[in-house]
Amino acid sequence: xxxxxxxxxxINLAKLGMFTTFPNPNVGCIIVKKSKIVGKGWHKKSxxxxxxxxxxxxxxxxxxxxxAYITLEPCCHYGKTPPCCKALFYAxxxxxxxxxxxxxxxxxxxGLLWLKKRGILIKEGVLKDEAxxxxxxFFKRMKTGIPWIQLKLAMxxxxxxxxxxxxxxxxxxxxxxxxxxxxxxxxxxILSTSKTILNDNPSLNIRxxxxxxxxxxxxxxxxxxxxxxxxxxxxxxLTPSNKFIYTKGNIILVRLKYDNLTWPKNVKQLLVPSYKKxxxxxxxxxxxxxxxxxxxxxxxxxxxSGALLKYKLIDExxxxxxxxxxxxxxxxxxxxxxxxxxxxxPKLSFSSIQKIDSDIRIxxxxxxxxxx
Length: 372
Known about the structure:
The protein is an alpha/beta fold. It contains twelve helices and 18 strands.
């Protein structure tokens, strides 16, 4: 029971880096000696010291003979920082309890092996699922090469995404839209389409002024940080004259062919092969995974949403439902194939249901049999 108690504390520490560690995973560490916490730390930003180092610095000489509770296997290789295994060993840690092995091929059990060979006791698998949950994108990218994909949709209670004339501002309440900002901030990239940009003129950035000040301070959020914005623009509809191009942050235009226009330095054109005359979405996500992107937050219209569901590319579907009726002439939530049998339709399961002001936010996950 004591291992679970301390690992929960380490996981809570790891969560403090959820807005800032990209592309690294969130990691927490608790050092315990004689049933007292003598050191604690979490990974704060890529390139800075890892959780173990912060905890060891706090523990100092008390680390000798102590137990380290770490949410992820300590690294054994030189990256942007020295290996944590060596730091734990030289500090005199006698036992290491971890939640999960690191899926990174450079580590993946090698850190534990290095420690075992030097006489350090190892226990693994404590609250494994909880620790993996806070690093879903990192684990998926390391194992499949593809980021964790979240699709956000907003709809009326009768399942419509906009009126017949295309107007959709605002379906949901202000509190729901602020909730979206937190999801955006935890994502490494935000993806949409040129059609959405041209129709709705969104900035797709994070509106930090809407954040709770306590949350900004607690998570040490840098207001200057913006996710990469990825726009699928297969027909080269966007040009340097579009207002969106000059919003702060890096932009990737996903295309089938280059244009010869002069773009600002923050804009990059990315060529992706076609599939049925459209962008090959699976190939696109593979490319983005190679760019160390762990999580992608998608906000788009019915066409892309339908394609993502059809090709089983979604890991989580987040839907905000407003208590409004748009009517049957309004536009659908997503465009899917026509099915003749109930058994053929995509199946999902409820992961979370939460009331936000006048709206309901539901999070669904695709049925494993269909999407894995």
